[in-house]
Each structure stands twice: as structure tokens, then as C-alpha cells.
Amino acid sequence: MVFRIRKKRVLTPVTVLFEVEAPLVCRHAQPGQFVIVRLGEKSERIPLTIMEARDGVLSIVIQAVGKSTRELIGLGEGDALADVVGPLGQPCPLRDSGTVAVVGGGFGVAPIIPIARALHDRGVHVIAINGARTAELLILEDELRAVSDRYLVSTNDGSKGVQGMVTDVLRQLIDQGEHLDEVIAIGPMVMMRAVAEVTRPHGIRTLVSLDPIMVDGTGMCGVCRVSVGGETRFACVDGPIFDAHQVDFDLAVRRGHMYDSEQKVALEHYEKCRCHGGGEA
Amino acid sequence: MALRKTKVPMPEQPPEERIRNFREVALGLTPELAQEEAERCLQCKNPACEQGCPVNVRIKEFIGKLRGGDLEGAYRSIWSTNILPSICGRVCPQEEQCEKYCLMGKKNEPVAIGRLERYLGDWAREQGLTLAEKAPPNGKKVAVVGSGPAGLTCASDLAQKGYDVTIFEALHVPGGVLMYGIPEFRLPKAVVQAEIDGLRRLGVEIRTDVVVGKTLTVDDLFADGYRAVFLGTGAGLPNFLGIPGENLCGVYSANEFLTRINLMKGYLFPEYDTPVKCGRRVAVVGAGNVAMDAARCALRLGPDKVYIVYRRTWDEMPARREEIHHAKEEGIEFHLLTAPIEILGDEQGWVRGMVCQRMELGEPDASGRRRPVPIPGSEYQLDVDTVIVAIGTTPNPLVARSTPGLQTTRWGGLIIDEETGMTTRPGVFAGGDSVTGAATVILAMGAGRRAAAGIDRYLSEGGKEG
Ligand SMILES: Cc1cc2nc3c(=O)[nH]c(=O)nc-3n(C[C@H](O)[C@H](O)[C@H](O)COP(=O)(O)OP(=O)(O)OC[C@H]3O[C@@H](n4cnc5c(N)ncnc54)[C@H](O)[C@@H]3O)c2cc1C
Ligand SMILES: Cc1cc2nc3c(=O)[nH]c(=O)nc-3n(C[C@H](O)[C@H](O)[C@H](O)COP(=O)(O)OP(=O)(O)OC[C@H]3O[C@@H](n4cnc5c(N)ncnc54)[C@H](O)[C@@H]3O)c2cc1C
Ligand code: SF4
Ligand code: SF4
Ligand code: FES
Questions:
Q1: Handedness of CA B32, B34, B35, B41 (dihedral sign)
Q2: How many CB pairs under 8 A join A and B?
Q3: CATH code: domain of residue A168
Q4: Which of A75, A166, B3, B213 is the most buried (most CB within 10 A)?
């Protein structure tokens, strides 16, 4: 099987969208599910959320944070990935009516789009909030706007939309009396946790997509375990979407840092090899 | 010449050297040593050894041919019932199977049947000798799910009968536990891949990166024209202890630890991208093969101390004797009659110790082994920063959950007809760890073979899928 990159779109200096040939993955993919990707022989298995899966072509958005994601975003059209496996995890539960706020931050805007689209198609009133540090880091604005009834933006520096965080926009909505039946937030752990705290006092059901460290993605290793409602769950098979008000975020954040020092070593090793003439452009 | 009372010693890497590398510990018998060992066999009229082998290897015959110098004949003899001699020779618990019944073993050490089997398997591989032959295609497609020993054996048997076989494997490499679980120093990955290459030459297609139950369902397979499906999905779901502190950073399942090392080659980080983190003082909980492998892998990453913590005694340990012996030689410390009751963490959420309790043996339990009973007030703290949990696995529920008509036991094992290997859904067969729970390579192979025969009969009788 060849998982060839058909199309590459650079969204920001650190974020790219790839369209990858992966017909089998597309057969059953549903919003909220993810794939595991391996670039080459010596590469890690990296979990990435499915943004779209149509006609045998899979769209994924990758944000460079460490060695593997940097190496991935350096690939170009025509290059191939060694492995793409999925769809993994449980699909996002979808309501049939009411109002849902979907909140995306960073690469999290990509996975929120198929969820917003599915809700929108079912006749749910969708309010989308897209947030980034600054205007040039906002991604997929047109795509998200197209699948929502209301579209709001926040940037930390105020260069576009409301100045502040996505949580500020969400709080304003609630304060203005907007009735929300549900909030779905995907983005950095700190953002998802902050969203959970905004909605908790109002008792608004809130879903988040956790992104713990993973290896196999099939329930075999247990590294992805998270604590939800006091119970240990494997995010790769039971999740990755969970009820935010039940999630032990402290634990999730701590476990996310488990390999920080090794990740630094990997990155230094990678940069060094590149400087010595190895690798790609 | 008087017969040797003990086995011809196996050449090995010395312990102080091997704990610094991942290369194979037991180097294999030379032709001379293999001859000498084969001479020890009494060629019994009623070879008791054979009743101990789950796949009935004709032990007397193959040893007889080996010592007559007919290596190819000897290899053919083994291969007629066991297609993976290089692997079984290395990993079978011989002391509980063939060698347990060997007549020589009554007074002396038994004949080293496993080592001779390995010798012949390795010899055949080096010669490039392959025995499998593809029958004329019969046009019937069969899907095999999982590429562990059960799936590999089932696929091989079916391909030799002319079936068009495709293996679907969830991971990026075929081989199952042989690749991701058992370490290089005990079972070199090149040995496993050579067997898998043989399967490809038989025309078996192997599709990695397919999780059945997710990427494709069993119903999809039937819809795609497969006439029967074999489930050899193993028992990959790790058990945890259910004690406080188990989600701290630095607590691994053995599966995670071993997968990072064996499948992802974490011991070669940063040349390979996947890291494996091992602290200075490591406790492995459990004493089966998995625990020994985890402990000995940990040791090779260079910590100060590696402990095995086990609630029973030497006599009850489920691991192969040879591996326990190797682990001891390598300097692993055993805390026996000891059970962990809590893992302690520091402010950053990392393991800083493990509270253990001493046990004594009471009355025998359902397994016939004496039950460990806690001694009140015997708690003590073991100073460790890494804990690896190796207390067993159960079948992964992905396939059972997504396949209508499949029944499982309470603990998730697929229910089959013992004779044919057919599950409660017509046309769907199963065998190996997915049925029995974590067991052995040779039992999984035997089950794969029985199911292949079951599938052949079912499809010859015109079986319709369910
Ligand atoms: C279910 C799931 C879906 C995901 N979907 C996407 C996606 O659609 N797009 C995308 O860009 N990323 C996604 N991620 C995150 C992505 O897998 C990680 O960013 C990636 O594994 C990091 O690899 P690396 O080698 O580049 O960085 P590393 O060297 O592993 O890490 C670099 C830094 O990132 C942090 N980090 C490590 N692991 C993660 C993680 N899992 N999530 C966030 N930060 C992490 C580390 O603490 C470290 O500081 C997802 C993760 C999961 C579990
Ligand atoms: C560390 C370790 C050491 C061991 N040591 C020994 C030993 O010394 N001697 C011995 O006899 N036995 C040993 N065992 C046990 C032995 O390896 C197993 O009993 C044997 O491998 C079981 O074979 P199997 O084919 O049933 O399953 P497995 O070998 O587990 O293979 C199952 C395969 O199916 C794949 N799979 C699972 N679900 C799906 C799905 N939904 N879709 C597609 N593919 C799927 C898995 O990825 C895997 O590759 C050991 C086990 C471990 C873990
Ligand atoms: S397959 Fe295993 S049990 Fe059978 S003879 Fe060989 S080593 Fe012994
Ligand atoms: S029982 Fe032992 S001595 Fe007798 S035939 Fe078997 S291996 Fe040889
Ligand atoms: S990633 Fe291994 S069990 Fe979830």
C-alpha cells in the first residue's frame, strides 16, 4: 500500500494540510476518529485526527511541535508515508437538534470541522469559535465558516476578532444569554481544560478530544490511559472524545510531559543531522 | 563411550557482556555439538517425549536422522508437523512439554530436543531450504486476521491447499508477539521475518495497517468475497494491578515497554525516533515470560537495579526455566512472596517508590497452585522509579464487539468448536491466544493448523458464510 501525498497546503509557518491517498481508511471514517501515521522505517507512530475522508483521500492537518511533526510537514506532494492506519477511536457522539458551540484552537480547528459539518447537516444550530495567538496563525477560516451558522474569532493579540482567548468568546456568548446545549472543544490541553471550567458552572455538556501519548492506537499498550470519572480508560479505543467535566486534566497534562527530555534529544539529533547535510529541504 | 548425563552446553554470550547489547544470548549449537547432543537420545521404542509435544513432532525420527547425517530428512520430519522449528526451538517451554517426558530425563538431564530443533531450523534457513509448496489455486479466498503464530500457521496450511489467502495485520509489521513482544536477544527478528518471507513466497498476501473491527469489519471481508475468516488476534489487552498510583509517569504495561523496545527499536533511540524511558531502579511485577523479557530488556538499558516482584515462589513461576536462569545470571534481583499494594509518586507525578507486602503460601487455589496470603504488618517500601506491570493480558475486544454473532467467554475469549475451530458465527474461525487467553507459541500454531483443517472441510462442503 502506498500512502501518497496528493496535495499539500501550507496553512501557517508551522501547520500544513495534507491530502493523502488512503482508500481503506476512508471506508468507515467518521468525525472524531483519528489515524496513526508513520513516516518511514525509523519513525514514530504519530496519532493525527481525520479532518476529511472522501473518495479514498484523507485530509489531515499537522502542526509541528517536535521532531516527528517537523519532519512530516517537510514532506511534499508526491512523497509517501510508510503507514497510515485507521480510522481509530470512537466517533464523536452527535446531537440531532439544539445549539452546539464548537471550539477549535491550533490544529484543533481541523478535527472540529467534520464534527461541525455533521451537526450542521443534521440541522443543529452550530456556533463556531476559531482561536489563535495572532491573525496569521488562524487556520481554515473559510472551511469552518462554511459549516457553521455563526462564526466567531479570537486572537490573543487582538489582530483579528475578539482580543483574548476562545474561552473569552465562549463566556461572552453564555453571558449574553445564548442557550448552548453542548460545547465541543478541540485544541491544546490548556485550552480544553479552560473551556471545561467555563461551562462547568452552567452545567453545559462539554466534550473534548484528548491527545495523550500513544504507541499502537489499538488498546494494546495502555500508554494512552486517562482518568475519566475516576475510571482509567484507554483514549485510543474508548476515546479520544470524553466528557470534559469528568476528565482528570492534571493527570493528562502530567502524562503528556512524560517524554519531554527525550523529545528534546530527538529534536537536537534531528537538527544536527540536517545541518550535516542529511535529510530533506 | 559413556553417554553424557547432562545436555551439551549451549554456547552463550557471557552475562557481563550480553547485558550491554540486544544480540541473541544463546548462540546455537555447532554441527559437532548438535551431533553430540543427538547421540544422547536413546531412540526409545515408545518415545515418551512425543506425547509432550502439542503438535506431535516426531522427535525420535528427526533426532535419528540428524545423527545419521541426514539433516534435510530430519528437517522434513519436523516440518511435517511444525512449520516454525527455528522459533519453537527457541521459545517452547520444553521443560513442561517434550523434554518433561524424555526418558533420559528420568535419571539425567533430558535430551535438548528444543535446541536440536532450533539447530535444524537454522540450518534449513541458512541453506535456503523451503519445503512449502503451493497447490493449484482452488479459487477460494480466505481472510486471516492477525499475523502471530496462529495466523501464520493457518495461512501457510491454507495456501498449501490452494486457497487464496490474505492476512490482515493491525500493526505495521507482521509477526504478532514474535515481533513486538519477545525481544531480539531471545528471538532474533530476522528469524521471524525469514518465516514470513516464506509465507509470501507461498503466495500469501500480507496487508499491514488494517485493524479489523475498525478499518474493515468481518462483514466487509465476507462482502469482499472472502469465503471464511480466521481470527488469530491474540490476547493483547494489558491487565493493570488496580492499585493506587498506577497512572503515575514511569508506570508501564509490559506491552508498552516491550513494544517501544522491540517493535519500535527504542533501544536505538535517537537513531530510531521512538524513545523508551527507563529509570535507575526498575521493578517488574510478575514472573512469566513477559516479566522476564521486560526485566531483561530493562537491564540492557543500563539502570542500577532491576527487581522482579512476584507473589509466589520459584516453583510457581510460569516463565521458561532457561529464561529464569538467564535472568538470575544477568543480575536481576527477585523479591518473591511479595505483592505491590501501592505505587508512590513525587510532586511531578513520577514514580518514587512502591509499597510491597510480604506473602505466605496458603491452600491450593483453582489453578492447583498454593494461594499467596498477605502477612499483616509486613509492608515495606521498595525504592524504585520505574514500574513495569506484567501480570497478564486478555483478548482485545475490537473484533468481538464489531462482529454480530460472535460469542465470547466472560473474560473475552472467543468461543469455538474445539474440533473445527469454528466460532459461534458460521464461516468465522479462531484460534490461539484470542481463544485461550495468553498461552504459548506452539499452542497457537496447533490451533491455527486445526482451524485451517476446519476451514478446508467447511469450504469443501460448500459452506456458506454467515
Ligand atoms: C488522538 C490524537 C489526535 C491528534 N491529532 C492531531 C492533529 O490532527 N494534528 C496535529 O498536529 N497533532 C495531533 N495530535 C498530536 C500529535 O500526535 C503530536 O503533536 C505528535 O505526536 C508530536 O510528535 P513530535 O515527535 O513532533 O513531537 P514530540 O517530540 O513528541 O513532542 C514535542 C512537544 O509536544 C508535546 N507533545 C507530545 N505529545 C503530544 C501530544 N500527543 N499532543 C500534544 N503535544 C504533545 C510534548 O510535551 C513536547 O513538548 C493528536 C494526538 C492524539 C493523541
Ligand atoms: C513478551 C512475551 C514473551 C513470550 N514468551 C513466550 C515464550 O517464551 N514461549 C512461548 O511459547 N510463548 C511465549 N509468549 C506467548 C506467545 O507469544 C503467545 O501465546 C503467541 O504469540 C500467541 O499467538 P497468536 O497468534 O494467538 O497471537 P499474537 O502473537 O498475539 O498475534 C496476534 C496478532 O493479531 C494482531 N491483531 C490483533 N487484533 C487485530 C485486529 N483487530 N485486526 C488486525 N490484526 C489484529 C496483533 O497486532 C498481532 O500481530 C510470550 C508472550 C509475550 C507477550
Ligand atoms: S515443538 Fe516445542 S514441544 Fe514440540 S518438540 Fe519442538 S520444542 Fe518440543
Ligand atoms: S524420550 Fe528422550 S531419549 Fe527417548 S526418543 Fe525421546 S528424546 Fe530420545
Ligand atoms: S495507544 Fe496503546 S493502548 Fe492506546
A1: positive
A2: 122
A3: 3.40.50.80
A4: A166
